[in-house]
Amino acid sequence: MNLTAENHRVPLSDGNSIPLLGLGTYADPKKTPKGSCLESVKIAIDAGYRHIDGAFVYYNEHEVGQAIREKIAEGKIKREDIFYCGKLWNTCHPPELVRPTLEKTLKILQLDYVDLYIIELPMAFKPGDAIYPRDENGKMIYHETDLCATWEVECHPYFTQPKLLEFCRQHDIVIVGYSPLGTSRDETWVNVSSPPLLKDPVLNAIGKKYNKTAAQIALRFNVQRGVVVIPKSFNAQRIRENFQIFDFSLTEKEMKEIEALNKNVRYVELLMWRDHPEYPFSDEY
Ligand code: A2P
User: Fold this and answer.
1) Which region, left, alpha or beta, applies to residue 120 given φ > 0 means left and ψ of -120 to 50 means alpha?
2) What pTM was computed for the model?
3) Which atom in ligand 1 lies closest to the alpha carbon of residue 181?
């Protein structure tokens, strides 16, 4: 498949298609100035991104929607050019809540539809107004669900997911890899015992050859093997940098070298919820 900045979509079985590179939009709401998501999504659309990954629980979905609407109003894009993925939060898993929750998301976005709506995490919390419902001892209140496990998968050169990839290839399933740059290393939810991905000597050495950064090599590695990536950045230069991955390709030897970096270690383990009956990360893949 010839990947270009204008066309790096992979077909889906329903006739739609998904761009292999998307912008991630999670940033700690306490530390992120209002409006930075809005600006970043607009910069990304101008840079050529057509896939935006967001969620109700990121508290900035209204900014994502505003950015998309402003770019449509400017005539830069049409709604159908954009692939937007929204997410059903853990407190909304009961089937009767799915539709109203999606409708709430559409209202927040002020858009008519989302292109993909996925289960944020397969671990349900007690439904209600609290996003993180806790009992009087501060313990999270879980909820039982009957779940068809369909969710995003962490994927990057330190967690290459060979078995999952093979399974998905056999069944014609497209993988969206979250944390493709190895996360922001926020210790409240990231396992920082694994070294920072972007400091990896192999990624940096290969980058030097192509005059690219380790981040660009990590992203190119995944899109070249058909895995969709959604790097988050709210920095104009890095948003643009992360899109510049369609003007070179990695050799088979380099792809193998990067695959060999796999440590089978997750950055996103969410150990605080490991006693949840549906905790997903103990399964082999
Ligand atoms: P920032 O938003 O300041 O650019 P992931 O997508 O794996 O979760 O990684 C996101 C983290 O990586 C964020 O902290 C983001 O910070 C940072 N980041 C995004 N793009 C790059 C890049 N090209 N080089 C270095 N760090 C990056």
Assistant:
1) alpha
2) 0.93
3) 7
